[in-house]
Amino acid sequence: MILFKNVKLFDGHSLIGERDVLIKNNKIQLIQNDIDEQSIPMDILHELKIINGNGKLLAPGFIDVHVHLREPGFEYKETIETGSLAAAKGGFTTICCMPNTNPVIDSIETVQSIKAKAAINNGVSVNCIAAITVSERGEDLTDFVALREAGIIALSDDGRGVQDAKVMQDAFMQAAELKIPVIIHAEDEPLAKGGHMHAGEKAEELGIKGIPSTSESVMVARDILLAEAANAHVHFAHLSAKESVRWIEHAKKMGINVTCEVTPQHLVMNDQDILEDHGNFKVNPPIRAREDQNQLISAFQSGIIDIIATDHAPHSEEEKSRGIKGSPFGMVGLETAFAVLYSKLVLQHKVSLERLLQAMTSRPAEIFGFKNGIIEPNGEANLVLVDLDKRKLVDANNFASKGKNSPFIGWELQGWPIMTIVSGEIIHEDKEV
């Protein structure tokens, strides 16, 4: 049993002020203005852990639908275990792993293997996203029915865009019948070919071939039309371009079943923040221009962009030491996501705290059918306690993730998760508190 006293409560929808919250038998038992521990029966009082929140924020555990755990095949970058530890440290209680592993998550056996390994971890819920096409080659569709029965929550060829429109059309049609969301990595490969960062002034300054925004936006437009024709649910991963936002806004006004996500790095950075030729700044889609960043922030606050997803993509330090041209795409983000967004958006009055929290809890739960995401009596006790006043420097040496490839290293941030709870059990606690 855990009794939180004097916490600033966000219930998944809104901030509702200071409350006491009692957790018993893995569930939320009571939410009241004042819960007197003396009212708890003596025979179970000895089991009670009292945590005085002193105004700290208690919210549903964060949900991240876009994480690369690298296992199987790339365990030197990350494992299910280390990725789950990083998630817990960042306040995430539910994560979804992308399929570009080796072997690719395109079979029942691989899904079952990942779920079995996740079951013996720290309690963070690890959900599988399976490939749209076999081995993510963009040719033959995977067995959607079998994968759905194995427990996947969505389909994606993340890391690659499905280039063949006929293959994508067939995928949308099958997914619509099974009511499976399709997550799109929107990238036209011929347009993006050979690029390493956004095609803009900074790329020219560094002498690095750029990736144009059209490589994303043309695929967003194509897949909106294909999804509309199939009456499918299309979800666009890691939006980066202002033109993509325009298409999403139009599609939503037309009543098309489209949702989308944005990463912390695309909201708080633009290409002028790339101060050196270092692999930690290389991500796909790339960090784009200031006007793209501003449009993403506006669309996020208004709800055109639905949710936050980190696209947590760990690599080895050796791989990321080869400069922007020679390094693989990807940044880690699970452990810094909330602090980055709170510091750079909420505290700078660009985004409201409620909107940020909705995008990390109830909204992803609603889109992908998770039962958690809100705090209510008899609900599952998956929670995060955040100290909105806590300040510290981002130090990769303290990451739980194997990946140290963060562009935020050295940033001083405010607002850090200090306790993560899954099914009423504390799975992470900041010992500095």
UniProtKB/TrEMBL annotation:
Cofactor(s), names only, from the UniProt record: Zn(2+)
Catalytic reaction equation(s): (S)-dihydroorotate + H2O = N-carbamoyl-L-aspartate + H(+)
Alphabetical keyword list: Hydrolase, Metal-binding, Pyrimidine biosynthesis, Zinc
Residue span(s) of domain Dihydroorotase catalytic: 55-244
Residues holding Zn(2+) 1: H66, H68, D158, D311
Keyword Metal-binding: yes
Catalytic EC class: hydrolase
Alphabetical list of InterPro entries matching this protein: DHOase, DHOase/Allantoinase_Hydrolase, DHOase_cat, Dihydroorotase_CS, Metal-dep_hydrolase_composite, Metal_Hydrolase
Pfam family, one: DHOase
Key word Transmembrane present: no
GO biological process: 'de novo' UMP biosynthetic process; purine nucleobase catabolic process
EC number, UniProt record: 3.5.2.3
Binding site for Zn(2+) 2: D158, H185, H238
PROSITE patterns in the cross-refs: DIHYDROOROTASE_1 (PS00482), DIHYDROOROTASE_2 (PS00483)
One GO CC term, this protein: cytoplasm
Comment on bound cofactor: Binds 2 Zn(2+) ions per subunit.
Binding site for substrate: H68, L69, R70, N100, N284, H315, F329, G330
GO molecular function, one term: zinc ion binding
Pathway note: Pyrimidine metabolism; UMP biosynthesis via de novo pathway; (S)-dihydroorotate from bicarbonate: step 3/3
Active site: D311
Function: Catalyzes the reversible cyclization of carbamoyl aspartate to dihydroorotate.
Entry-linked NCBIfam families: pyrC_multi
Family: Belongs to the metallo-dependent hydrolases superfamily. DHOase family. Class I DHOase subfamily.
Protein name: Dihydroorotase
Naturally occurring in which organism (per UniProt): Desulfuribacillus stibiiarsenatis
Primary gene name: pyrC
